[in-house]
Design goal:
Elements: E1 2-10, H1 14-24, H2 29-37, H3 42-60, E2 70-87, E3 93-108, H4 110-126
Length: 132
């Protein structure tokens, strides 16, 4: 089963958070939280909070194997941008884009991932060649 958490309109640009998303993708939840805890960056704190929220959602839904959950999917999507103006020399202006991000974390059991991959492989085998 999949367990999901989102943080929409996070006050940080997505490019600053994506390296931390790549760092924890596919890892166990406990290992991912420990990895993010030792980074001093604000992006790591934001992703860690969403990861803990997804873990709490799994606990609330009655997940049987909490220790075996892995980060199945993590997305850092761009959100809307606030357009601001910075005054410059001789009456000119310089545009500033304040970027926001949407963070999505999906956790899954390794058994559920294996079953989904197995059924997809079985469906691919049983489909006629013309349908593929």
């Amino acid at each position: 089963m999949l367990y999901k958490a989102q943080h929409r309109f996070a006050d940080m640009g997505p490019r600053k958070m994506r390296p931390f998303a790549h760092l924890i993708y596919g890892k166990n939840v406990d290992v991912a939280i420990e990895a993010l805890r030792f980074y001093p960056n604000r992006g790591a704190r934001l992703i860690e909070g969403v990861l803990k929220s997804a873990y709490g959602n799994a606990e609330d839904k009655g997940c049987q194997n909490l220790e075996g959950l892995v980060v199945h999917e993590i997305r850092i999507d761009g959100g809307p941008m606030f357009k601001r103006i910075q005054p410059r020399a001789r009456g000119t202006a310089f545009g500033i884009l304040r970027r926001l991000a949407h963070i999505t974390v999906i956790l899954a059991d390794p058994e559920a991932i294996a079953e989904a991959a197995g059924t997809a492989q079985a469906n691919k085998i049983t489909q006629p060649a013309a349908a593929q």
